[in-house]
Amino acid sequence: MIYLDNAATTKIHPAVWQAMQDIEQNNFFNANTLYKGGINSAQIVEQARTILMQKLHATNGQLLFTNTATQANHLIINHCIRRPQQELVITAGDHNSIYLAAKERSNQGYTVHTVPLRTDGTIDIEAIKTMVTDQTSLFMFSLVNSDIGTYQDAAAVVAAVRACNPKTHIHVDAAQAFAKFDFDVSQLGLDSVTICGHKIHGPKGVGALWLRAGIKLEQPHGTLNHSAIMGLATAAQNFHCPAVNEIHRYLVTNLPDGCRVNGINNNPYITNILLPNVFGETVMNALSAQEIYVGLGSACAAHAKGNRTLDSMKLTPQQQKQVLRISLGMDNTLDEIKTFLTTLQSVLQAIRTHNIL
Questions:
Q1: What pLDDT, on the 0 to 100 scale, is given for residue 59?
Q2: Which of 72, 115, 129, 214 is least surrounded, with the fewest CB atoms within 10 Å of its CB?
């Protein structure tokens, strides 16, 4: 098997699995209890919290643990958008967890603006200046686009928002960026950040929400899954892909004739390619039959009609059906990419020969 859909989810790292197993076997106590076992479990949570705060370069604020990145994003929307006069601004490249929640608010009568992307996949800074107003309570954007992988210029986005309204709460969904890129939440001037575990070889079902000092939000109720929380922290500590730039460079420079990369490809972990007049789903299924797994875009929008990111980048409806997303993780090798490219070439040739679209 060659797995090239790591932006959808990742295989758990052995060190993460071992840490979680050890906790579940030996420190399984409820962290809310007051006897020794519970106190030990609570200490595990605090240890994980410290690790994650350091990874975010967060010198202040708090870290709330959630079941998913989606839950973290929704907590911020519910916190910031509570009255009709409070406006929400998102971007066209945001994850479905943001887009669908924003759409629901719009249906309820709230004012929601969507900042478009440029044709290269970057956020249109000039458009921000026309959409952020005195009534904008919350501005949300994804640090890394999950469809094409664009790593956004967060400093430029934050500066544009602050210039329009210094009081606007700025939230970043960093699910696809955390641990892969080194960024300082305090230096960037962010108010809140979402992270999760399963994009970095950690467990599914755990995320976290960082909030700068002064923002009051309660930890969601329920028993903390402290083994998964430590799994998230352990994944962040162990995520390391020293060969990812070399593998990515080989991938994009050896694509079959007629294929091209969509958008600015400034993130080696995610590459979105346009196929030559062939449906991406046809190619994906042909590759899958040979146990090579790639994606078409964000897994959470896999069944949606069209693609908001590609649409905002001015790809035609036909072109939006002709894409593949290749996303790398810690386990991928250069040999795997060579095999993928050879197989992709054969699949494209077979499709042309049989005139299959």
A1: 92
A2: 214
Shared-domain flag, residues 196 and 288: no
Regarding whether 327 and 218 lie in a shared domain, the answer is no
Query: Residue 51: what pLDDT?
Result: 98
d(CA 211, CA 192): 5
Question: What is 196-207 written as a DSSP string?
Answer: ESTTTT--SS-E
Picking from 223, 238, 253, the residue at the C-terminal end of a domain is 238
| CATH code, 117 | 3.40.640.10
* Segment 228-266, tens digit of pLDDT: 999 999 999 999 999 999 999 999 999 999 999 999 999
Backbone angles phi, psi at 163, to 5 degrees: -65, -30
| Global pTM exceeds 0.90 | yes
Between CA 6 and CA 332 the distance in angstroms is 10
Give the torsion sign (CA, 9, 15, 17, 20).
negative
**202 and 330 housed in the same domain:** no
Measured in whole angstroms, the distance separating CA 204 from the mean position of its chain's CA atoms is 13
Residue 215 and residue 91 share a domain = yes
Q: Return d(Cα 348, Cα 27) in angstroms, integer.
A: 52
